[in-house]
Design brief:
alpha+beta, Beta-Lactamase, 3 helices, 7 strands, Profilin_CS, PFN_euk, PFN_sf, cytoskeleton, actin-binding
């Protein structure tokens, strides 16, 4: 299965009649493996900061999680495995796998829990596959 298929069929899937705003699979080095057409153009330092938070949980909290120039307030995640951010009625979930990060961005009516479920389920599957 191609990486784009994971984004199109698994991350951008229908969730109770709605969809994530955008999603991507990004290598630990910041290379884009696949993304939805609506995924924001991000800066390499944004990815570096997220990766640092996986190694040093809490490092993003003082400055916020930045992605595509949007600043999200960091909220409770799983240290070393999941980083979550909130901005208004939307937010972002980032799940780290062995070789990549699974990123889902949502806005109402999608809920944080629905985004977490979609992103983390795919992340867990890829971890099981050693990816």
């Amino acid at each position: 299965m191609s990486w784009q298929t994971y984004v199109d069929d698994h991350l951008m899937c229908e969730i109770e009649g709605n969809h994530l705003t955008s999603a991507a699979i990004i290598g630990h080095d910041g290379s884009v493996w696949a993304q939805s057409a609506s995924f924001p153009q991000f800066k390499p330092e944004e990815i570096s900061a997220i990766m640092k938070d996986f190694d040093e949980p809490g490092s993003l909290a003082p400055t916020g999680l930045h992605l595509g120039g949007t600043k999200y307030m960091v909220i409770q995640g799983e240290p070393g495995a999941v980083v979550r951010g909130k901005k208004g009625a939307g937010g972002v979930t980032v799940k780290k796998t062995e070789k990549a990060m699974i990123v889902g961005i949502y806005d109402e009516p999608v809920t944080p829990g629905q985004c977490n479920m979609v992103v983390e389920r795919l992340g867990d599957y890829l971890i099981e596959q050693g990816l």
